[in-house]
């Protein structure tokens, strides 16, 4: 097994630049190389509507201050190009749905309208449909996470849960601690409320607790209050690693000792290739944990059903915030999800998803071994959707992207997953969606781009530059 790249994975890496170098703050789209911006704009709009013609300045005075840092994420910008049929996209995090029995879902949808139409097509309560919450508690129980239906609030996917969490907890300038790298949608949600993300480095065992403790001390010494730690402890997006059992205990101890809230985001916990389950932080420190679940990766992302499990006082505020955001979750999709979970073999579907992902992961790993030049490293995932690849020293994944797109393969540059714009030497490769054959083809194309770049560098600067 190859190891992680040494630089950004060391628990002793230098402090995040965002605190010391505000000029390096993440600016999303503006950090995408100009050539790619132009390429993407041309593909999206046709050559006659280029970026420069969109007159943002005439609206600027109307925008709220908190929107200043907002820009389309690199991933969104990429989709325009990556979704073209000739491109093998190793960029998106969409689950393959071929294992899902669409006829069965169609029958359930018909039953929902025929038998419960007057509820399904009506407004519902802010906390979510009670029978669905019972089922979601069963899903958590299947993973060994304790929960009662009354403790849950249904949300529009895990993404809305992240938005509501930041809305509940963050004032402008508050510090949020997060793994480095972190899920890009969480970074967007936190920055929308003007929180400042401070990363805590990870290695193959997940986030480093000793560095977390040191960072907490530094934040408090500067007179600021860390609002919460955001973590994806199982098969993390984007790094593909899981927090070790020992470190879970250590995080729980730190949370209890330091009065630190933990936001435990868990879309991938049931997708371990061997079906292994890990101890949830919610099990260890329930009174300090905001747990976020979702049906997106184990049933369907289109149904947009996620949930929050949180202690009473937080839960009451979440219900108020949910009502202020959209009154209530769609009853139609809640009732459909409820029927799915109460009548179908959803555990069997999860096993089919796991098997499919393991096959895809194997295809990616064997091709990476065959194709990638000396100096590249990557993790071996035990579940989830992602491989985190480190390029040979000196290469930058964002600079390489236009060349990769020309070679008809897409990935997400690592810098998208750091609030401070670091991580340039990494890229996230997703194996969740394309077929194994397409994955192999995509990695062959990527390997050729990276090898050509490595040869060019050797020719220009010598082999030991
Ligand atoms: C770590 C993580 N959290 C949350 C989400 C949001 O998922 P959804 O809103 O579909 O539940 C994703 C989606 O990729 C994710 O990877």
TrEMBL record:
Cofactor dependence: pyridoxal 5'-phosphate
Alphabetized UniProt keyword annotations: Aminotransferase, Pyridoxal phosphate, Transferase
Pfam families: Aminotran_1_2
Molecular functions (GO terms): pyridoxal phosphate binding; transaminase activity
A GO biological-process term: alpha-amino acid metabolic process
InterPro entries with a match to the protein in the record: Aminotransferase_I/II_large, Class-I_PLP-dep_aminotransf, PyrdxlP-dep_Trfase, PyrdxlP-dep_Trfase_major, PyrdxlP-dep_Trfase_small
Annotated ranges, domain Aminotransferase class I/classII large: 101-446
Annotated region described as Disordered, given as residue ranges: 1-22
Transferase recorded as keyword: yes
Entry similarity comment: Belongs to the class-I pyridoxal-phosphate-dependent aminotransferase family.
Quaternary structure note: Homodimer.
PANTHER family the UniProt entry points to: AMINOTRANSFERASE, KYNURENINE_ALPHA-AMINOADIPATE AMINOTRANSFERASE, MITOCHONDRIAL
Protein name as annotated: PLP-dependent aminotransferase family protein
Species per Swiss-Prot/TrEMBL record: Egibacter rhizosphaerae
């Amino acid at each position: 097994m190859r190891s992680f790249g040494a630089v950004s994975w060391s628990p002793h890496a230098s402090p995040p630049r965002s605190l010391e170098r505000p000029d390096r703050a993440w600016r999303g789209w503006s950090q995408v190389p100009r050539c790619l911006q132009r390429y993407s704009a041309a593909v999206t709009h046709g050559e006659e509507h280029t970026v420069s013609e969109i007159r943002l300045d005439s609206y600027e005075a109307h925008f709220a201050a908190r929107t200043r840092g907002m820009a389309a994420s690199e991933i969104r910008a990429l989709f325009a190009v990556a979704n073209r049929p000739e491109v093998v996209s190793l960029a998106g995090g969409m689950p393959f749905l071929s294992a899902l029995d669409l006829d069965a879902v169609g029958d359930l949808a018909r039953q929902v309208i025929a038998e419960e139409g007057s509820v399904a097509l009506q407004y519902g309560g802010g906390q979510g449909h009670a029978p669905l919450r019972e089922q979601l508690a069963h899903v958590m129980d299947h993973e060994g996470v304790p929960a009662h239906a009354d403790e849950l609030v249904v949300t529009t996917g895990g993404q809305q849960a992240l938005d509501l969490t930041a809305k509940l907890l963050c004032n402008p300038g508050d510090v949020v601690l997060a793994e480095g790298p972190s899920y890009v949608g969480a970074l967007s949600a936190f920055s929308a409320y003007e929180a400042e993300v401070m990363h805590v480095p990870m290695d193959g065992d997940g986030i480093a607790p000793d560095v977390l403790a040191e960072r907490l001390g530094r934040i408090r010494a500067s007179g600021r209050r860390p609002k919460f730690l955001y973590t994806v402890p199982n098969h993390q997006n984007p790094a593909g690693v899981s927090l070790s059992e020992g470190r879970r205990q250590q995080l729980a101890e730190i949370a209890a000792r330091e009065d630190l809230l933990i936001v435990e985001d868990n879309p991938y916990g049931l997708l371990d290739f061997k079906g292994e389950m890990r101890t949830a932080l919610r099990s260890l420190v329930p009174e300090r944990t905001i747990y976020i679940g979702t049906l997106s990766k184990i049933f369907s992302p289109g149904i947009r059903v996620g949930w929050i499990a949180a202690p009473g006082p937080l839960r009451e505020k979440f219900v108020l915030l949910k009502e202020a955001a959209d009154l209530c979750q769609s009853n139609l999709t809640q009732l459909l999800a409820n029927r799915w979970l109460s009548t179908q073999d959803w555990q069997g579907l999860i096993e089919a998803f796991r098997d499919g992902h393991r096959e895809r992961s194997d295809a990616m790993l064997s091709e990476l071994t065959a194709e990638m030049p000396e100096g590249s490293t990557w993790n071996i995932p035990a579940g989830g959707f992602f491989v985190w690849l480190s390029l040979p020293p000196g290469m930058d994944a964002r600079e390489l992207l236009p060349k990769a797109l020309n070679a008809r393969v897409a990935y997400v540059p690592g810098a998208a997953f750091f609030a401070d714009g670091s991580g340039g030497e990494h890229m996230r490769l997703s194996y969740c969606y394309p077929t194994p054959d397409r994955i192999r083809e995509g990695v062959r194309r990527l390997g050729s781009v990276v090898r050509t770049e490595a040869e060019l560098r050797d020719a220009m600067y010598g082999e030991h530059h």
